[in-house]
Structure formats: C-alpha cells, structure tokens
Amino acid sequence: MKEVALEGFAPVEGGRIYYEVRGEGPPLVLIHAGLWDGRIWDAQMDAFGSRYKVVRYDLRGFGRSDRLTASFSHRQDLADLMAFLGIESAALVACSIGGSLAIDFALERPGMIDALVLVAPGLSGDDTPDDDHTAGLVDQAEKALEAGDLVKAVDLQLQVWTPLQTDPDVDRRIREIAMENQHVDTLDWSLSRRLEPPAVGRLSEIRAPTLVMVGDRDAPVMETLVEKVVAGIPGARRVIISGADHLPNMRQPDVFNRHVLDFLDEALPRGG
C-alpha cells in the first residue's frame, strides 16, 4: 500500500476531495451528515485510530472539498478516494446523508464494503413524510433560504436535527461547523448523479455485516427510516443511543464509540 499524507486532497472526477488519515489497521471510512463536514468525527479519530486505519473526508461541496461545478457522483468520489489511498475495501461509519451514500455505495460496489455502521441513515428513493412539527420548521428554513437569510435557514435546520443542549461546548461546535457549511444550501444538487434504481426496495441485496444506530431524541421521521433499514438489510442490528439527537457521535461519544468498536471487532476480527 502506497504511502499517503496524513491529510490532503485526493483527485476525483472534476475536482478534489479533502481527507485525513489516522492510525493503522483495517480501513475504516467515516462519512459525515449533511449540515456539517468531516469535523463531526473529532471524538472518533483517535478512539478508532487505535485499532483501524481511519479516514474521514469532506463530501463534495462541503468543508474543504471542491464545490459543485459539473455532474458528479458521491459514490464515484468515495471510490476515487479509496483508490487514491490504496484501499481496496473498507468498513464505513456513516451518518444521515452519509448513511444514504454508504447504502448506495454498498449496492453499487458490494466488493468494496467490509461492514456498515449506519447512523440515523437516509435512504435513497424513500418518501416517508415528516411529522407536522418538522415539516413546519423545514418550510420556514426553505423560506429563509429563498429570502437569502442563510444563517436563519441553518438555525432552523438545527432545531430539526440537533435540538438537544447536552453540553455548551458541543452545542457551540455543532452550530459552528454547520454555519461554516451554510453555502451548501445554495449549491445545485441536481448535478449529483443518483443511484438508479434507488436503495428503496433493494436493501436485501446488502450482505455486509450492518449496525444501525439512532439517537432516542432524533427527528421522528428517523424512527421510520431506521425500522425500514433494519428490516431490509439481512442480519442488521439496531442500537438506540439515549440522550442523543441526529449526531450521537457528538452527543454521546463514549457510548457511541464503544458500540461501534464492539461491532467492528466482531465483524472484522483482524481489527481486534
């Protein structure tokens, strides 16, 4: 396996993706949720890096990665990043839209997946409606975006996904990273090539060991989505993290890390 920098930019189709690498061992790739970037995994890098070669990166359009300029695929970006780092297959720990990407990637490139940890995952092609409260906040956020008030739009989205106030420093960090990514709401996401057919109705094709995690205080729609994913992927397990919303890895990092490491130690014995 070739030597790579601990951080840098990987060339992908029509752009560059920012990444960081920590530790040695079986490869483990962390994929962030949609309002934020790879920094949401700060509490996981050292903990996971003690047993695995951990990679976190900013999705196209987020963080330090290039913005959208032409048609692209998040799945191809991930494949290109792994190839650049000399990784043939990896376990994925992925949150929210990152979870949706991980599922799509597992369907499109099953040979590149060793295990899946899906944290409050999205599901491509799913049409589960939001509850009335969430729908109201989303509508307000869309109106704020139309009016050009990106700060208000992000704050309203934070009310949906991360309403808990578990710790002032964590609360501040969650909002800070989201605000630094407020531009993502202005990007042309029609440039992103979707998986066809989408993951809905195809979950039974996934054969990788799978753990699905969700906070007990997440948005109500996540309960339905998690049930669908757990029921659809053969052998999938579910873990509910108490005292956590959409980012259990930040709200309850010690509990989160223990569950993930215990699962991976079983799913990937060579990592123990």
What does this structure look like?
The chain is globular and about 50 Å long. The chain has helices at residues 42-49, 74-84, 97-108, 132-146, 150-161, 168-179, 221-232, 248-251, 253-267, and strands at residues 7-12, 15-22, 27-31, 53-57, 90-95, 113-119, 210-215, 237-241. The two termini are 21 Å apart. The chain has nine helices and eight strands. The protein has one domain (7-128, 189-271): Rossmann fold (3-Layer(aba) Sandwich). The longest helix has 15 residues, at 132-146. The protein is an alpha/beta fold and 272 residues long. An eight-stranded mixed β-sheet has the order 1-2-4-3-5-6-7-8, sandwiched between helices.
Quick one: biggest sheet?
Answer: 8 strands, mixed
Low-confidence stretches: none
Q: Percent range for helical residues?
A: 25-40%
- The first-level CATH class is given as Alpha Beta
Strand/helix succession: EEEHEHEHEHHHEHEHH
> CATH topology, what is it called?
Rossmann fold
The rounded distance between the terminal residues' Cα atoms is: 21 Å
Give the strand order of the largest sheet, numbering strands 1, 2, ... along the chain. 1-2-4-3-5-6-7-8
Number of structural domains = 1
Structural class: alpha/beta
**CATH-defined architecture:** 3-Layer(aba) Sandwich
